[in-house]
Write a structure and sequence with these properties.
The chain is an alpha+beta fold. The protein folds into two domains: 108 residues, no CATH class; 123 residues, no CATH class. Helix content is 27%, strand content 30%. It is built from two helices and 19 strands. Strands 6-5-14-17 form a four-stranded antiparallel β-sheet, with no helix packed on it. Strands 11-12-13 form a three-stranded antiparallel β-sheet, with no helix packed on it. Strand 7 and strand 8 form a beta hairpin. Helix 1 runs antiparallel to helix 2. The longest helix has 40 residues. 23% of the residues are buried.
């Protein structure tokens, strides 16, 4: 196979990977606190050990998460909480601590503050429990939760030196290799949810560009296939 075909195939593989990431972004455009992802790639030169220039391939280095804050949307639900600025909620799961910016919380049968899937939300001094009959819950900007009878606890908000190193886990949460650091002066907004930072128009534009590029590469590969077939046919006739 000729080098030009290998180069085109490396580009085609990268485009297919980029298309998968873009499609996943679009699928999560309405997922609260979801962060868009992007593909990282570069030109990869192969030294041919000749006077001719090296071969230029496309190398897929991986992907990264866009950490920009999503729009804050008011819901009116007193147990919905959005983080403005840096920080993550801490969630206690059977597999250990997980981290999330999705603050759609609720109370379970025991009155414990939990996520939508039932995992306890960590407070600064342990789980946050609302006694039976407690009403008028309010959540201050620093994460302190109070009722008519006084303070009930404070949401634990943490940050990471390298948030891009967080790894996705189940239910829209993250795991971390580094130890989290408590945010000293968090800013939370009660009755609100952070929406996805995916911009549908941008992702649709990217999808159309990827599709056009993929078609151009496919056209080139089809032309190369016909050219090589014609060459083989002519050589076969010449030696017959």
């Amino acid at each position: 196979m000729e080098n030009s075909v290998y180069i085109a195939m490396s580009r085609q593989a990268t485009l297919e990977r980029e298309l998968d990431i873009t499609a996943n972004n679009l699928a999560n455009v309405n997922t609260p606190s979801y962060k868009a992802e992007r593909l990282v790639f570069r030109e990869f030169l192969v030294d041919t050990q000749r006077r001719a220039p090296g071969l230029s391939y496309v190398q897929d280095l991986g992907q990264y998460r866009v950490l920009d804050e999503g729009p804050i949307r008011q819901t009116g639900n007193p147990l919905d909480v959005a983080i403005s600025g840096d920080g993550y909620f801490v969630v206690e799961t059977e597999l250990g601590e997980r981290y999330s910016r999705h603050g759609r919380f609720q109370l379970n049968a025991e009155g414990t503050l939990v996520t939508g899937t039932g995992e306890p939300v960590a407070g600064a001094a342990g789980p946050i429990v609302v006694p039976p009959g407690e009403t008028d819950l309010s959540i201050a900007v620093d994460g302190v939760i109070s009722g008519k009878n006084g303070e009930l606890g404070r949401l634990r908000i943490v940050r990471f030196e390298n948030p891009s190193e967080l790894r996705r886990a189940a239910n829209g949460m993250f795991t971390a290799q580094e130890a989290p650091v408590d945010v000293g002066d968090p800013r939370v907004i009660q009755g609100s949810i952070e929406d996805s930072n995916v911009e549908a128009v941008v992702e649709l534009t990217n999808m159309m560009r990827i599709s056009r590029d993929h078609q151009r590469v496919k056209k080139f590969l089809d032309q190369e296939d016909r050219r090589m077939s014609d060459m083989i046919d002519k050589l076969t006739r010449a030696t017959a």
